[in-house]
TrEMBL record:
Keyword Transcription regulation listed: yes
Keyword DNA-binding attached: yes
Boundaries of every HTH luxR-type domain copy: 717-782
Record-linked Pfam families: GerE (PF00196), TPR_MalT (PF17874), WHD_MalT (PF25873)
Keywords: Coiled coil, DNA-binding, Transcription, Transcription regulation
Organism: Laedolimicola ammoniilytica
Protein name: LuxR C-terminal-related transcriptional regulator
Transmembrane segments: none
Coiled-coil residue windows: 524-551
Length: 784
């Protein structure tokens, strides 16, 4: 019998068979082009089927005809409500019969009862999307040659959309490669089909609404009303929901388009609307976002609408409400879209440019913009509000610029405190932590203050908390606790005090401080050998922040959880973080990601990839030196020393000595001892004599304690007993590509017996017995 040319996903076939045996209704719900009809016909092949048109149903004949076992109804979304009720009656009456229903919409309300009782199986669009193996099978059935890399590219471009994959196979049937030109042609064919089969069948108000909402990833009812100007938009959206699955729910009254259909709508929008009409749509979208203080989306819309004055005004307002230095990196492209003249007209915009340049490591340009604000202030009368704003921006930068030493803040903060109390200045919000789980090593490095932490706590607490406002709630107590922790002291009482005041921080303070306190608690738990407790502590904060929409902390929370996973020995969790979240961008260094760079280097050491760790860390050296990041510098040099030690590079001694010199200068212990078992062999070899005997003994005790708690910290979980040869490595990669011995022999032009010998050697060197285990080991060792 000839092999079927229809690709039926095994899971869909299983659901169909289960529905035929144990249910009553098999419901296929997907947009056009998903092959619902051909899939249904293939599943029903050889069965007694009666077919019915949804637009003109013939229930009388269906009730009296005894020959059919299964009723197939296509385009159910076109059936009138009265006829849908008759269909339900037929289903209830004919208990021995089965029903296959195809629809571009969701199941109508009258059928939901069958779903609740388990009698209806619904397969939606996601269940019909092709995966890699489906694409491979379709091309094989069409007798079209396709490579693994082309399959990956087809899957990425088509997102598994069956019609897109089918069209691609047809276009490649003549021997064409998968090129951008072929992709563009496939898209045009799909778009033409959408236009004829779906879009042109809609009434004009529906078409207009679709085109006007297409520019927005997600929208709600209110946004649809504002952008479209249609007061009846709710009725149109309800109609779309019942007659098509192109529009999808994102929760209650929030929507998004199915991705391929949205691309079509944007294509159609460019063809039907003038540039002026498109700019007007983006302008109304920007207004909607602006009213909700969603400045990022509002700026994107106003930029597209060409309204530079609104971009400038929003950036000024955003600077007033800014949640930390990360805000400026997100707004960078909008700042740089403004002319120098526009920037110089506003102290807020110049402040933003000064901070942006500093975050990019261009400190000379940062100081130039600082001087521009100074010049602006000098040109204003002392009583001029613009001059007062400029002086406020200068005070903000004096405290916030990363290149400014903290020693100068001992003079700056009291001066600013006096001006604030005299109402000479008003300061915008600060982020002392820069969304990091630390005050001591957050927006600035306060190591120099830790030398006199008790004195500064008594004398600077009031002015600091006054100057920083909400950002200062809990800051002084968290900072001194962290300073004592770094010095290896017992901070249990200080932590209890902070935790007892967490409610006040949550009510009157900021999430930044809540994260800093939680980070300190988690580090303290890890130090006490309670890594699992630390994980729960941070996971609880992550859940709470997710519920309240505090997304700006997510990246560093996940990095903190990754570090805790390394202590717990949960290498798979750390590897997953590395694959999905690590920056891995040494050529595009971003100071806001420094916590993640250090975490990335730790994972790379745990993966036994010291060369990768050194590459990750290299861009941090000039930053740490210029901005006096002493704590980061200690971590940086320890990690560099560990990497070089594993490479048998004698330079590790100098790196470790640099770390110890800095730690000893500030009496820091835990900054070094956190590396426990990983750094212990290096300390034993180095015989460091600096820092004084008392400090060295304290450090060694703490390192030994951490080594006892976490003996495998940063130790590679797997290692090769013997290095693979070039041929063995090539064969291993082919094994990971799921190639058989015969295929490997053919590709490498060697005998199967030779392949088997190489495979045996590979398994032995990896310390595994089966090919599947070799694939897992190869991925963990980063050999593929």
């Amino acid at each position: 019998m000839e092999e079927s040319r229809i690709i039926i996903k095994p899971v869909v076939a299983q659901q169909f068979e289960h529905s035929m045996k144990h249910g009553r209704i098999f419901f296929l719900s997907a947009p056009c082009g998903f092959g619902k009809t051909v899939v249904a016909e293939e599943l029903l092949r050889g069965r007694k089927v009666r077919r019915m048109q949804a637009e003109k149903p013939d229930f009388e004949r269906a009730e009296t005809d005894p020959d059919w076992k299964i009723l197939l109804v296509d385009d159910l979304q076109l059936m009138q409500e009265e006829e849908q009720q008759r269909l339900c009656e037929l289903i209830r009456k004919k208990t021995e019969r089965r029903f296959v229903l195809l629809s571009r919409g969701v199941p109508p309300g009258c059928l939901l009862a069958f779903g609740y009782t388990g009698l209806m199986t619904v397969v939606d669009a996601d269940g019909l999307l092709f995966d890699r193996e489906d694409i491979r099978a379709l091309f094989r059935n069409r007798q079209v040659e396709v490579t693994d890399s082309e399959i990956s590219a087809i899957l990425k471009k088509s997102i598994g959309y069956p019609m897109g994959v089918e069209l691609t196979a047809q276009l490649m049937a003549g021997g064409r490669s998968f090129t951008p030109g072929l992709v563009a042609q496939a898209y045009r064919e799909v778009f033409r089909y959408f236009e004829a089969a779906v879009y042109r069948r809609f009434d004009l108000p529906i078409r207009r609404l679709l085109l006007e909402m297409a520019p927005f990833d997600r929208f709600d009812m209110e946004m649809a009303r504002m952008v479209s100007g249609n007061p009846h938009v709710g009725e149109l959206l309800e109609w779309l929901q019942s007659h098509t699955t192109m529009l999808r729910y994102d929760g209650i009254a929030r929507f998004h388009f199915w991705p391929q259909f949205r691309k079509f709508l944007l294509w159609e929008m460019e063809r039907e609307y003038t540039p002026e009409q498109c700019r007007s749509i983006y302008s109304r979208g920007g207004m909607y976002y602006e009213l909700r203080d969603d400045y990022s989306h509002a700026l994107e819309c106003y930029t597209r609408s060409g309204e530079h004055s609104r971009v400038s005004n929003l950036l000024i307002r955003g600077a007033e409400l800014h949640p930390g230095m990360g805000h400026y990196r997100k707004m960078e492209k909008y700042y740089k879209s403004l002319s120098e003249q526009e920037l110089k007209s506003s102290p807020s915009l110049m402040q933003g440019m000064s901070m942006l340049c500093a975050l990019s490591g261009d400190y000379e340009e940062s100081e130039r913009w600082y001087r521009e604000i100074q010049q602006f202030a000098e040109n204003c009368d002392r009583r001029d509000g613009a001059g007062r704003q400029a002086r406020s921006r200068l005070a903000w930068l004096d405290i916030s610029l990363p290149q400014r030493p903290v020693e100068g803040m001992l003079e700056t903060i009291p001066a600013v405190f006096r001006l604030l109390t005299e109402k000479e200045l008003t300061l915008s919000s600060f982020s002392v932590t820069s969304t990091l789980p630390s005050v001591m090593n957050g927006g600035k490095d306060f190591s120099d203050w830790s030398r006199k932490d008790d004195l500064l706590y008594r004398t600077m607490r009031l002015p600091v908390e006054t100057v920083l406002g909400r950002d200062g709630v809990g800051l002084a107590d968290c900072a001194i606790a962290e300073s004592k922790f770094e010095k290896g002291e017992d901070i249990s009482r200080r932590l209890l005090f902070l935790i007892s005041h967490m409610g006040e921080i949550q009510r009157n303070g900021t999430p930044d401080m809540e994260f800093a306190v939680t980070g300190l608690l988690a580090r303290s738990q890890v130090t006490a050998g309670q890594a699992e407790e630390a994980r729960r502590t941070v996971e609880e904060l992550k859940r709470r922040f997710a519920d309240s929409g505090q997304t700006r902390f997510r990246a560093n929370i996940n990095a903190l959880l990754c570090r805790i996973a390394l202590y717990r020995g949960a290498t798979e969790e750390a590897d997953e973080w590395y694959r999905s979240s690590a920056p891995r961008s040494p050529l595009n260094f971003n100071v806001m990601k420094r916590y993640r760079y250090l975490t990335q280097a730790m994972v790379e050491l745990a993966q036994n990839r010291p060369d990768a760790a050194l590459l990750t860390l290299a861009p941090m050296e000039p930053y740490c030196e210029t901005c006096r990041r002493h704590i980061d510098s200690i971590h940086l040099h320890i990690l560099q020393a560990l990497a070089m030690y594993r490479q048998r590079d004698a330079g590790w001694r100098e790196k470790l000595r640099q770390a110890l010199d800095t730690a000893a200068e500030y009496s820091f212990v835990r900054t070094v001892s956190a590396y426990g078992a990983a750094v212990l062999p290096l300390l034993e070899e180095l015989s460091y004599t600096g820092g004084g005997e008392e400090w060295r003994q304290k450090l060694l005790r703490d390192v030994l304690a951490q080594a006892a708690f976490y003996p495998l910290f940063l130790q590679p979980s797997l290692s090769l007993t013997t290095a693979l040869t070039a041929t063995e490595l090539q064969i291993l990669r082919l094994i990971c590509a799921d190639k058989s011995n015969a295929e490997i022999g053919e590709m490498m032009n060697i005998k199967i017996s030779t392949v088997k010998t190489h495979v045996s050697h590979i398994l032995g060197k990896l310390g595994v017995r089966r090919r599947a285990e070799a694939v897992t080991a190869a991925k963990k060792l980063w050999l593929v």
